[in-house]
Amino acid sequence: MKRKTNVQNQATKKLSPFKKPSKDQQVLIDTAKSFICQHLRDTKPAVLVITGDAGTGKSVVLSQLFYEIQRESHHQHNQLSGTNNYFIVNHPELLKVYRNLAGQLPNMYKKNFQRPTSLINLMNKQHNQFDVGVIDESHLLLSQPDHYNHFYGTNQLLSLLKIAHVLVIVFDEHQVLRLKTYWTKKRLQSLLAPFTQKWLHLTHQFRMEADPSLINWINHFTGDQQLLPIQKGFQNHYDFKIFNDAEAMRQQIVNQNKRVGLARIVSTTGYPSTLDGGHHYITEGNFSLPWDQYNYSSTPWAEIPETINEVGSIYTCQGFDLNYVGIILGPLVNLSQDGHSIIIDTDKITDVESFKRRQDMNDPKEVLQAKVTLNLNAINVLMKRGIKGLYIFAHDSRLRERLYHDYQLSLQ
After folding, report:
1. Which domain holds residue 349?
2. Is the dihedral of CA 152, 158, 161, 167 positive or negative?
3. Torsion of CA 88, 91, 92, 94, to 10 degrees
4. Domain named AAA+ ATPase: which ranges (predicted)?
5. Is the same domain home to 32 and 150?
6. What is d(CA 264, CA 292) in angstroms, rounded to the nearest whole number?
7. How buried is 229 (Cβ within 10 angstroms: 0-12 exposed, 13-18 middle, 19+ buried)?
């Protein structure tokens, strides 16, 4: 029991408002509060957009900001007194973390942490509005109707703007993962054009204790798809390894999980995966583990001890810190013919739910590029989960040989 508590503390401590933010983060928090107070009584809604790459502390800023807003809303003689505010996140696993945290803090109530569809439907039913909405992972907001999830509007951000006075949103176009939540910076700017807005940006990498050269390697891998040389510096203060055996990687992850906790195997799409309640396995040589299952508990997937025997996906890992992550680059990630870049084979996508056709995207070239971009985004998200270490195994034999060869050269 003590072991589980320690792991939970590791997973949620970064979001605790009692953790002192950095100087840059505090400046951003103060700027956000000033923006909220300035526009709280405007006749039209105002929006503050916070951008930044994975691991730059966006969620930390939002958590601290919301705590301060709620604290002031319960005290008299300030501009936020009596305000009705919500923290909004369209990620069920991340929502569990925030709600668990809320139960431990004064002036923070679980009811103030909502998924967007639930809040939109509640406000519309009551013909009501709220004052301040803080939206984590706004790139996960639906940008089209989704009747399966009981959202009947055209766009969740527009629906929230109709019922809020001020929104503070975190946005990272490199973490957009589904066509039904398809956002680009250009699309967001176009949607927000009629509203008062301010944009702020975070740059410092807080999650990964990694050398900037490794971050740059990942950014090229998942951006322009170029394979840069693997350098010795990748191992500076960080455990970076390339494996040519998936089972050997799993064993290393298990060892790290026993040592420090929060070490997990994750994978891209490309392997059999259907939400039918059954087990669907990823098999690579002697390696064989099932995909993560839908998590009905109140404990986030990464904090459940038994999930060391599952393979996580972007749906269970996005927004979370792991100590060590072992990523399997599935069948859709291949080495180009010239050996200098990677290519994404969209015909090998098995996550069909995420790539259902949109009515407003009729150009086949646009759809194809979107699929490539979304899969590169998923790799970016998964590669940047690990605080202390990143391990990689590639299904494609040519890519696996190239990466392993480059890695071995870097060790000499």
Report:
1. 212-411
2. positive
3. -80
4. 44-181
5. yes
6. 11
7. exposed
